[in-house]
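Hi R.,

Here's the chain you asked about this morning:
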Amino acid sequence: MNKKERFSRKRSICLLLVALFFAAGGYAQKITVKGTVVDEMNEPVIGANVVEKGTINGIITDLDGHFTLSVDEKAVIVVSYIGYKPQEVNATKDPMRIILREDSKMLEEVVVIGYGSVKKDDATGSVTAIKPDKMNRGLTTNAQDLMAGKIAGVNVVSSGGTPGGGATIRIRGGSSLNANNDPLIVIDGLAMDNDGVKGLSNPLSMVNPNDIETFTVLKDASATAIYGSRASNGVIIITTKKGALEGGKSKVRITYDGNVSMSNAKDKIEVMNADEYRARIKQQYGESSDAYKALGNANTDWQKEIYRVAFSTDHNISMYGGLGTTPFRVSIGYTNQNGILKTSNFERYTASLNLSPSFFDGMLKLNGNLKGMYAQSRFADAGAVGTATRMDPTHPVMGEGEIYSKYFGGYFQWTNDGKALNDPTWTVTNNSLAPANPVSLLELKNDRSKSKSLVGNLEVDYKFHFLPDLRIHANGGMDLSTGKQTTDVSPYSFTNNYYGSYGFEEIDKYNLSFNTYLQYVKSA
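And the predicted structure, written out as C-alpha cells:
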C-alpha cells in the first residue's frame, strides 16, 4: 500500500467519525414533551393543536387533554384551539400543564338572527355574517355586489350586467322547480317584498351599499323559523350603520367617501373587416354580381361604434355621533354609472336617517330608521350587440342621401319598397331580412325607468326591571315604492318605421309590517 492510498483511507475514516459525531449530537438534542391542556375551569381541552413552532411537527390532545410529542430540546411549543388565545411555551422534559384562556373578541362577536342579536358561540343553525372589512371593495351600485363570492353556499349571478341591474341570488341552490327561489331580504328588522317595481330589480337595489354595516345569511330551518314559509329559500339580513356616543360624549363626525371608475369592453368578437368582406363577396359571387354592387366604400367597425369607455362616479357624505345623549347618523349618496354599451345609464340618489336613543339606564332601547331613494335608468337595446357582428362593414353609420334622412333618421339601413304599407307617406321601408344598423337600435329607442322608494321602521326593545333576563322586542315598519317604465320608439326606427310607438307601465305598492316577540336569556 503506497502513501497516497493510506492518506485517502485515513481521510475517509476521519470524515466518517465527524459525521457520526454530529449525527449523535443531533439525535441527543431531541426530547419527548408530555403535558396536559386545560381551560380556565380546569377542564381538559379535547382536540387542541400542539405544534413545534416553525415546523409541521404536531399532534392533537386526547380525550383527557393529554399529549406526547418529540421535539428539539430548545423548541417552542404552540398550543391553539378555536375560541381560545394561542399559548407559546418553551419545551421541557418535565410534565407540562398549559392553560388556555378564552378569546373574548372571538366569542363575543355578535351576529344578527331572526330573534335578535346573539353571541356567535351561542348561535345555533347555519349563520354566516360578513363584516365591513370582508366585503368587496370598489365602486358597487348594488348591495349584492358586496357579498358576491364571500359566503359558502350563496350564489350571486348578475342579471345581464346592465348599469344598476340586479342579480339572481340563490342560497344552497333552488328549492322549487316552479315557484320563486329568491331568499327573503330583511333590512333593519323589516322583511321586504321581493316583488320589485319598475327600475328596482329587488329590495337590495334601494339600499346604498355605503350605509351597510353587516350582512347575515341564515341558511337552515333553525335559524329562519321566525319568518315561516317566507324563509324557505333562506334569509339575508342587512344591518345598516348607526351613530354612537364616544365616551358618553355627543361628538359629531363628518365623512366623505368617493369613487371614480372606468370600464370598457375587454374584447370583441372576431369578424371580417371591410376589405376582407369585399374579397369574400367577390370570390363567392363575382365582381359583376348584385351582391358585390351593393357593397359600400366605408370601413366600419360596428362593435367599436356601439361600445364606449364608460366612466362612473359614486359619492357619499355621512354625519354621525350624538345629539345630547341620542346617537344618530345621517347620510346622503349619489351614484352615476354608465354602461359600456352606448346610451345605457343608471343614476341614483339616496338618503338615510338613524336615531337610536336609550332610556332607563339602557333597559329601554329605541332604533328608528328612515331611508329614501330615487333612481332613473336608461336601458340600451341589447339586440345591438348581436347585430353589430352581422352588419355589413362596407357601409357607414350614417347613410348618404335623402332616403336615409327622410325615413331612417339619417342612419344607413337596408331598404325595401314601401308600397305594401298602403300609405303614400312611406315609399320605402326597412328590409326585415337584413340586420339593422346597430347604432340606430341604440339611439332611436328611448327605454327609461324612474323609481322612488321610502322605507321606515321603529324597533323597541325593553328589558323588564323585575326580570332583566326577560325582554320584549317589537318592530313596526312600512315600505312604499313606485316605479314607471316608458318605451318610446322613433318612427325612424328599424323595428317600427311606420308611426313609431310609445308605451308605459307603472306599478305602485306598499307593505306594512309589525312583529313582536318575547325572549328569555339566562345570564351566566
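The CA atoms of residues 46 and 394 lie 76 Å apart.

Let me know if you need anything else.
M.
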